[in-house]
Amino acid sequence: MQQSRRNAQKWIPFGFDTDSSKIVDIASVENGLSCNCICLICGTSLIARQGQNKKWHFSHSTEVKGVCSELTLQHIKKYIKVKIQEKKYLALPHLLQGKEKGIVNLKNLAGGGIVCGLNADLTGICNDTTIGIFINDTSEDIQPNPDLLAQTDQLALVEIDAVRIESIIAPYRENGEGIKMMDAIEKLLFVSEEAKKWIYHPMMKKVKHHTLHQYRRELSTSGNQILALIPHELPISMNALPSSPAQQWHHLRATINLLCRLSRSDIPQGSIAFEELVYYIPRLLEASESINVAAYERWYDFYIRKKGEGVLNEAKIEFLSFIVKIINWNLSIHNLPTFDSKQAFRDWFLLNDPNKSL
Predict the structure, then answer these.
(1) Are 58 and 83 part of one and the same domain?
(2) Closest by CA position to 275, among listed 308, 319, 216, 327
(3) How far apart, in Å, do the first and last CA atoms of the chain sit?
(4) pTM, full prediction
(5) Considering 82, 116, 119, 354, which has the largest number of Cβ atoms within 10 A of its Cβ?
(6) Which domain-ending residue is among 183, 202, 228?
């Protein structure tokens, strides 16, 4: 029986720009055939339809080359597959309830293959475990052959819910925000645990079922918009604290700018607790690109208390956790034994003074 696609829509959200060799959204190209784009799936030339009365979208310009359709889910599925192959990692929920999500790095990524009697979209290896990745664009559950699973302890299966992802990015199409739509998909894949679950993991045989993480679909439209506010690409690298004074000041400025951007008045509203937490972020900032530690400690205690009370959903926790990460990075620089704020500012200013002679 053919698997059904829930509320299947027909519009092509992305195209492959033959000039830049990049995947682009409808708002990033010229109208009509001048978009110079081809279909991600079949390679047929696309027309960018940017009319005044209809939502913008791509469509095939001629008879389709090979097997393809304009089902939105198929194009989202293809985009997901391409991005995972580029990044070579995924953010996945922890196997157990109450545990933090983690990043799973994937080696030897390959497209497609039979895994436990099913067609996997991607396969990769993490440590010594082969991971089969299934991008589910149907209403059916993915059900691997249990007899085949029992034959190995070095196989895990992951599902990415493309239907859920389509529903999350839909508001950006409504608002004509194609770039945000692409960013939202990447955040869902590489930052958030949302829209993904473990179908099978060898550890499932060793723990009680009720302790396992349960996949939930809870994000509201405002939650999706909150999630999309978290920058996918940061203006600074947070792999190691900067050693040079000029770079230290650059990092401090970047953290303060991020905090200001993420506490704007147009942040989507949520619970009273969430609104209060966002409202007080600017009041944590001090001169010299620093954080008021006492105020931050009070803010953080309030955040942890409200998180424990369950009044913050996953999107709000994700957003506020990012705020905490940025603040802690700022504090870590100020706490470096060799940090000197005056020297850091002076060195940074000498490098960035717009009036400096060339």
Answers:
(1) no
(2) 319
(3) 71
(4) 0.56
(5) 116
(6) 228
